[in-house]
Amino acid sequence: MNWLDICALEEINALGSRIVAGPKGDIAIFRTSDDEVFALDDRCPHKGGPLSQGLIYGKRVACPLHNWQIDLESGEALAPDVGCAHHHPARVENGRVMLALRDAG
């Protein structure tokens, strides 16, 4: 897997996100209050809302359009909603946010 160096962790606010242009559209990188990072395509599986603008709590993000709850680890919508935002591997290494791109399924 090829890892891309995106930015310093401190460049993403806690409970915030950063958008990165990917080969198939924008990717949102989320930072939790515990300094974990997760990356999802920046499109809610419901109506394509910008997940990067949603509220982050725990390991979930709420879509700003219709409040769908999306699990940051898997991209899966939480019941009763059904759908999935494509997930990309992300990690913090030596204080840097690293991202590996995967094609959308």
Automatic annotation (TrEMBL):
UniProt keyword list: Oxidoreductase
Protein name: Nitrite reductase (NADH) small subunit
UniProt superkingdom: Bacteria
Enzyme class label: oxidoreductase
EC number per UniProt: 1.7.1.15
